[in-house]
From TrEMBL:
Keywords, alphabetical: Cell membrane, Membrane, Symport, Transmembrane, Transmembrane helix, Transport
Pfam families, A to Z: Na_Ala_symp (PF01235)
Organism: Leptobacterium flavescens
Residues spanning the membrane: 54-77, 214-238, 258-276, 288-308, 314-338, 371-395, 440-459, 480-498, 504-521
Membrane disposition: Multi-pass membrane protein
GO CC aspect terms: plasma membrane
Protein name: Amino acid carrier protein
Principal subcellular localisation of the protein: membrane
Cellular localization per UniProt: Cell membrane
Organism ancestry: Bacteria, Pseudomonadati, Bacteroidota, Flavobacteriia, Flavobacteriales
PANTHER family for this protein: AGSS FAMILY TRANSPORTER, SODIUM-ALANINE, TRANSCRIPTIONAL REGULATOR, LRP FAMILY
Amino acid sequence: MKKYLLFIFTLMIPVITFAQEAENLGLGQRIDRWFQPIADWWEHKVLYPFPIKIFGYDIPIVVLLLVLGATFFTLYFRFPNIRLFPVAINTVRGKYDELDHHGAEKSDLAVDGDVIGTIKDESQEGEVSHFQALTTAVSGTVGLGNIAGVAVAIALGGPGATFWMIVCGLIGMSSKFVECTLGVKYRDVGEDGTVYGGPMYYLSKGLKERGMGVFGKILGGLFAILCVGASFGGGNAFQSNQAAAQLTGLIGISFETYGFWIGVIMAAIVAVVIIGGIKRIANVTEKIVPFMAGIYILACLVIIFSNFSFVDDAFGMIISGAFTPMAGLGGLVGVLIVGFQRAAFSNEAGAGSAAIAHSAVKTKYSASEGVVALLEPFIDTVVICTMTALVVIFYNSGDIFAYGGDGGGNVILNATGEAVGGVGLTSLAFDSVIPHFSKILTVAIVLFAFSTMISWSYYGLQSWKYLFGRGKGADLAYKLLFLAFVIIGASTTLNAVIKFSDAMILALVFPNMIGLFFLFPRVREELGKYMGAIRGLKK
């Protein structure tokens, strides 16, 4: 272990030197200016509008794909987001663990012709528990989108955008259920017990079953390429950049001077975790996620209870604003688009990334993890994003700013005329009730960023191995590149590069959702097996 770490950082010395010299020479800004047209082109392609305007608005095809797909799965599976919610809770807390080990002793119930006790013990094929898989996936989605993204949504669309974020989160639970069930069903398990799973595998293997092997390989390869890019950018460099910016701002030191060293420290901590693979990542996230979410939710609850008399008014604004939008964005469809788009960035339902983490679970029933996965958008969007929205709405009960902002995701403070958005707006909202809470919020942001990075390192590594093989050399090459981007993100202002890579997260929707539309009948079969086993257990 120590030799491995020493080897990694010896190889990274040239990268560290380059990152420091690049900022001193202003190379980051030059790369940024050069790459800006490419980033703009890529973002335009990912958010390419539907050819027909809907109520006068250009709606990105990717948003339509997410919404229509999630709605279809919700209806087809008869509202699994509601119907299967109690089953999900019971599965996470271990009520049905006996199914994975002692099926036949409880009942002779047959599932698709097999007696439960005689089904291959696939629970031995896996690396983490249901709870660990859930926390790993949640750590990849709960992050700056919940803190900054919600504020941007409200700044652009008013309180009504919150309503559509919640709706997107609720129907997104169905998409997450489908993709994570498939992730377990079509995973590969190596001779040493290591699990390889995710959309790359269910796209290639699942579509091959349906006689579309070449098409499946193309979609699987495309997903893997996009996922590697997303892991370096939105899942890594952006996170380390924002964490370094928050820390230097809190301490009162120069980002240009000290951001690099913060990046080196973060890279060292990340290296210790990701070297251990999914088991160590899961062990860390199962401790960090409840802690960081607990701190944030507790602070939100303090503010909500201190404004308890205004809660009904706030929800009234959210509901009325969803159908009678406030000035700024200017229309119902516009507010809907903002809400759905920000929710998609936040919970990644339909993007398929979380299926990579969930596929590593120890279970013999694929649908058991799909059921667990539907909790993820609920936690991320319905609970945490809604709480953030309430905090911002309470803050503006004194008409601190006008909804609609400047069109760039910022609001203009009425008292000073200052433009504030994202994390800055959320910090002001917390500080207005809990003095100096912005300091605690900085700690939460760093934890959010760290947990997102380690989860996305696993997503990217699995995609990298799909493309370049499962040898130790490929493993080491990816981890070196990933750690390099931690440092580069924290020490340079490569906004265009990060923008380009961040758009790759949404781009994952295209290959993933296309595959889901072909493979969803398999999910119905797997759900039938799992629910049948649960009924047998209760007898």
